[in-house]
Amino acid sequence: MQICVTDLPAEGVQVTDRIDPRQLPDLVALQENDACVFKGPLTVRMRVSPAAGMFQVEGHIRGTTSLTCSRCLALAETPLSATFRLSFTRTIPGNDTDRLSETHELQAEELGVVLFKGDHIDFRDVLQEQVIMAIPMQPLCRADCRGLCARCGTNLNDKTCDCTGNDLDPRLAILKTLKFDS
User: Is 175 within a domain?
Assistant: First the structure.
């Protein structure tokens, strides 16, 4: 997804697109590594506006993915949603190009400033980054997921197991004899 900024009107433009995750290499890599499976295209809405020699981008990306539940290991469809706000510029504000150093670039990235060259902004890297950040680190199949039994591995959402919770780690057995005064 690219946009030409040479003829961008002062009020900006609204861009809406549906993107196949197979067109984004980082998302393809996630699927190939079985980290997730994208269900259908991603919907992207962005507003691109010129502002003080830069271009402000406010956007929202949505989609659905299939992830492994972090408690019971079942597959679960998970909605993805990310809102982002970035500034694109050809040069880092406040720096002359002769003294450009890594510390200045890092500060620009931390402020949400993205450098680009030419007359087109390519949003591919930004969109991939936003989708990856929207994927939950510990996805759940449902909020009340009971997970797996630590002893026998039974999915406690489907059935209860016959394991008893009385087994105590022998290294902690001494703690059972402690008495506390109220």
Answer: no
The total domain count for the chain is 1
Q: How far apart are CA 58 and CA 173, in angstroms?
A: 57
Q: Which two three-digit tokens encode residue 112?
A: 């949400």
pLDDT of residue 100: 46
Residue 153, in any domain of the structure? no
Taking residue 139's Cβ as centre, other Cβ atoms within 10 Å add up to 19
- The pLDDT, as a whole number, for residue 130 is 92
- Residue-by-residue DSSP string for the chain: -EEE-TT--TT-EEEEEEE-GGGSHHHHHHHHTTS-EE-SPEEEEEEEEEETTEEEEEEEEEEEEEEE-TTT--EEEEEEEEEEEEEEESS-TT--GGG--HHHHHHHHHTTEEE--TTEEE-HHHHHHHHHHHS-SS--SSTT---B-TTT--BTTT---S--TT---GGGGGGGG-----
Q: Which domain holds residue 15?
A: 2-145
Q: What is the mean pLDDT of each run of 10 residues along the chain (182 residues)?
A: 83 91 92 90 93 88 94 92 90 55 53 80 90 92 91 89 74 83 72
Position 103 scores a pLDDT of: 53
What is the per-residue pLDDT for 97? Answer: 47
Is residue 170 in some structural domain? no
Quick check: is 151 in a domain?
A: no
